[in-house]
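Why do we bother with holo predictions? Because pocket geometry can differ from the apo form. Keep that in mind while you read this record for adenosine-5'-diphosphate.
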Amino acid sequence: MSKVRLVLEDPHGFLRWLAAAIERQVANLDEVDVAQAFAIAATAALARTERPERIRLVGDASGASRFAHALGVDQVLTGADEPEARERGRTVTLTRVKGRGPKEQISSKIVKLLLPSTPETLEAANLFRYVLVELLRNVGQHSQDPLGGIVAAQINDAGPYANKPALQLVVVDNGIGIFEALRRARPSITTASEAIVRALEPHVSGAFAEGESGSGENAGLGLFFIAEMAKLTDGRLFVASRGATLFLDRSDDELAQPVLTNGDAPDYPGTLVVFETEIGHVHDYDGIMARIRDAAKERTPQRIVQHWLRFSDAPAGVLRILIGVASEDTAEAQELARTTLHPRVTRREPVVLDFKNMRVCTQSYLHALLHETVRLAWAVKTPIYVMNASPAVRAHLELVEAYSLGG
Ligand SMILES: Nc1ncnc2c1ncn2[C@@H]1O[C@H](COP(=O)(O)OP(=O)(O)O)[C@@H](O)[C@H]1O
Ligand SMILES: [Mg+2]
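The structure, written out:
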């Protein structure tokens, strides 16, 4: 019997196995003993039927094969764009996600299918949803994969995970890869391994040039937040993207982190991101986010700014705009900014943004809404008032203001 194990303890072992499969154009799961969701998703992406150069996925006898079929691998090869629960509360089916549209609904659905809504898992659910929204958004914004991405999620609670269940999230595409996506805006980046490292830094994005703090839609903070979340929760992050891989493993030795490979070792033909952390390690979502924002602020050069986002009461008669979208659609946020906020601020009319319907959201969403808006407000010296912001939303807003007006 084979002893091949495609597990996150050894992601490079998986990439070697995959490289051989790509070479043969057949991935045979019967030669695999154990495969975690990330390995199945990354292999399935390459076997999608629309791909002219697809590999064939075979096998139905091994543990790994049975797991792959239970995960819905057969359906995802041709379609499957709605996640469903499998093995109640332990896996959801592989799901295709395409396009630049909102990512909140599908992310919420996946997290809900996996984590019971109890007070104990609420914090972890918020964190996992955040990671999913940002990763799915990256596929839509940057990958250029016409088929979009595949998302998978699995709770592991056996073997090394016994008594400390961990959730593994996977988002994978077969697009242009991080190096290609970044290098146009960052000509100083000359290798794929450098690109992966820089992509995890705050304010590094293929959407705007060096020295700027953001374009309308992008802040370059998505992967930075995710990498910091992995570190702060003693989790793992594996990124493999054309030409390089980066592995942030659980480790006591901070100096050993991260492990990078470049063109010498097998990579992934596209972008594969795996995030995993113990559910029980996430008990303070707001605290984790606060620490990450502080780290981002520290790495943004600051000049003294007067605050144009005001958390005090607005004068009477000021127009109130309800920010209630639960869609996490950055394009829509930018549209709202352009059509509603910018004209008023330009005319020096203060506005009130009312966040009563938005308890948590991503940094990227508020960036899209406010990066250009606060710069305009600063230029014309007109305040933007904020009401009903939860502590989490307020802290995100303060970070947007800090880097938008800083530097
Ligand atoms: N799936 C992907 N495919 C190609 N490039 C990607 C992908 N995900 C991230 N990137 C690259 O990494 C950069 C940083 O991503 P991120 O930190 O989320 O910031 P942002 O999305 O705001 O640019 C992106 O600008 C892009 O160049
Ligand atoms: Mg992003």
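The pocket of magnesium ion (ligand 2) is lined by residues 134, 137-138, 222, 364 (CB under 6 Å).
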